[in-house]
Amino acid sequence: MSATIRLTAAQAMVKWLSVQMTEDNERFIEGMWAIFGHGNVAGIGEALHAARDTFPTWRGQNEQTMAHAAIAYAKTMKRRRAHAVTSSIGPGSTNMVTAAALAHVNRLPLLMVCGDVFASRRPDPVLQQVEDFDDGTVSANDAFRPVVRYFDRITRPEHLLTCLPRALSVMTDPANCGPVCLAFCQDTQAEAFDYPESFFAPKVWRIRRPEPDTREVQDVVEAISVAKHPLIVAGGGVLYSGAEDALAAFASKHNIPFVETQAGKGGLSFENTRNFGSPGVTGSACANALCADADLIIGVGTRFQDFTTGSWTVFANPDRRLVSINLHPYDAGKHNAVPVVGDARVTLEMVSEGLGAIRFNWHSPAARTSWHETVRSVTASPNRDGLPSDAQVIGAVQRVSQGNTVAMCAAGTMPGALQVLWLAARGGYHMEYGYSCMGYEVAGALGIKLAAPEKEVICFVGDGSYMMANSELATAVMRKVPFTVVLTDNRGYGCINRLQIECGGAEFNNMYKDSNVEVQPEIDFVAHARAIGAHAVKAAGIADLEAQIIEARGRDIPSVIVIDTEAVSSTGAGGHWWDVAVPQAGGPERLEQARERYNANAAKQRAFD
User: 548, 537 in Cβ contact below 8 A?
Assistant: First the structure.
């Protein structure tokens, strides 16, 4: 009879997680973020306390932002390592649903261990229990089901023997990678069971590198061979595969230009001579010109989100075809693409071998040089009085950036402005734009710095997104995790205000001046950040912003630099149409004009066939 060890279910979970290893002999789940409540404090909380010297627990301020930090960590680690997050029953759990959706959309690993109702049902209904009048098995945690890759409810301690390996197999699967929710009944957490000692033997999880079907590779080779103007669209899958060098070699050998999505930007340096920037709605002029002429679009690890495709108007060549290299058949087969299901690095190498010495000569190097000059022009220091634009703020940070600088953001004006204007060094860009979640920024900066302490992390955040979620700044102060927050204050939601105007709408409920308020707020962000414990200053202008960024490099706590900006200007360069529906009836002349513009652009939409 095999040896056993008697543990509570919560103790067994923590012990098992602590010995799940990577090929580099590090824990795959580095530790667990925790906010305790009555659904997890007695069981999981006590188990984490007992293991605190071998499996760390980190206290956060909000369940959603703890999970955001964990997601940013996993993204920075290219899905090779991850964090877990635990919450109590009820609102603690549902606070994390948004973060789960963010991880799901971005295909990133996240383990959420959520307190749940009593499996015995003896004390039902417990505090914070959501009761379904028609289904006695439902709890608040069922809200996770649409936004996780794997969901399980642990109602017996022996369930861990199957659910934990299943959870890690999902999180380490390059094709199905995503968030996992384990709804852990609170009485089950405390229940003891005789677990096999073998269950706790260290296990190495390898991130597999699936090879594509040779027939699909041949289809792609043939498609490229007959093309005249092929173009590569590099997505986040390039980074997660570690295919950056393979992409550079492929583009160089066959002289094919490439453009980078939000998730793929920074995979290769902007200085690479075949890197034409980003495509689509917030794309560079030179990239969108290539997209318009390309007769073969080669997607590598991209979902072809509408911002990348200009809502399917940017690829204007009537003879265009689509190739999609992706790990998941769902993504590879989108839009009638010629699919290649396989690892990006392996697939690019196999396709390159099949192409032999074939080279193309259709892109103009002068176009990207001209674009870089345009970027430097629109991001230059202002030569006039008045508030700076977001583009000029980006220029200030760019001028003092270093080789180890990472520019990061998630929502508002800055994601689009950074995509089109930030000249990223290799590994110097982190954007959450799959879900574009307001409130990711500060927590995300914390997660990036935890994963890459050698990097200088610059967090771009608007006043609206900062107001939505800033509390993990306190966590960074407590843990002495330094990063720099550039907080642009335009007194409202400037990005959506501009979109509202573009769609023919009246300025309404976005800027404070257009909102139904009795008093226009004058929020002292410097005082707020200082109260949390961060170093905070108000930049007097662009030159002072540059100086404050340099000065922040010597600190061991976060620095917040607030700068007032104007809310009207767009980037002033690049860009493309985005499909945002305009009301078809009623409204003043401004709406009629917006409808005319919308109809003209919508007529250009065309799916691949």
Answer: yes
Give the torsion sign (CA, 107, 108, 111, 112).
Answer: negative
Domain ranges in the chain are: 4-204, 214-363, 378-564
Is pTM, for the whole model, over 0.85?
yes
**CATH number of the structural domain 214-363:** 3.40.50.1220
Of 359, 344, 350, 375, nearest to 274 (Cα)? 359
Per-residue pLDDT at 608 exceeds 80: no
Q: Which CATH number fits domain 4-204: 3.10.250.10, 3.40.50.300, 2.40.50.140, 3.40.50.970?
A: 3.40.50.970
The residue type at 51: A
Distance CA 77, CA 81 (A): 6
List CB contacts of 384: < 8 A, sequence separation 6 or more: none
The two three-digit tokens of residue 105, written as one number: 């959309």
Percent of the chain beyond pLDDT 70?
100
Neighbours of 584 (CB within 10 A): 10
State the DSSP H helix or E strand holding residue 32, giving kind and residue range, or none if neither.
strand 29-34
> Mind listing the pLDDT tens digit for each residue in 108-148?
999 999 999 999 999 999 999 999 999 999 999 999 999 99
Helices (H), 255-386: 285-293, 306-309, 329-332, 344-355, 365-378
User: Residue 555 in contact with residue 482, Cβ under 8 Å?
Assistant: yes
Positions of E strands within 42-125: 57-59, 82-87, 110-116
Q: How confident is the model at residue 1 (pLDDT cuts 50, 70, 90)?
A: low
Tokens standing for 206? 């390898």
Answer yes or no: same fold for 4-204 and 378-564: yes
pLDDT digits (tens, 9 = 90+) for 505-515: 999 999 999 99
Q: What is the pLDDT of residue 572?
A: 80
SS3 96: coil
| Environment class of 509 (CB within 10 Å of its CB; exposed 0-12, middle 13-18, buried 19+) | middle
Taking only the tens place, the pLDDT of each residue in 87-98 is: 999 999 999 999
Residue 136 class from Cβ within 10 Å (0-12 exposed, 13-18 middle, 19+ buried)?
exposed
pLDDT in tens, 569-594: 888 899 999 999 999 888 788 899 99
Structure tokens at 584: 């078809």
Q: So what's the pLDDT on residue 361? A: 96
Please state, in angstroms and rounded to a whole number, the distance separating the CA atoms of residues 146 and 141.
Answer: 11
- The answer to whether 412 and 469 are in contact (CB under 8 A) is no
CATH of domain 378-564: 3.40.50.970
Average pLDDT of span 36-42 = 96
Q: Is 65 exposed, middle or buried (0-12, 13-18, 19+ CB in 10 A)?
A: buried
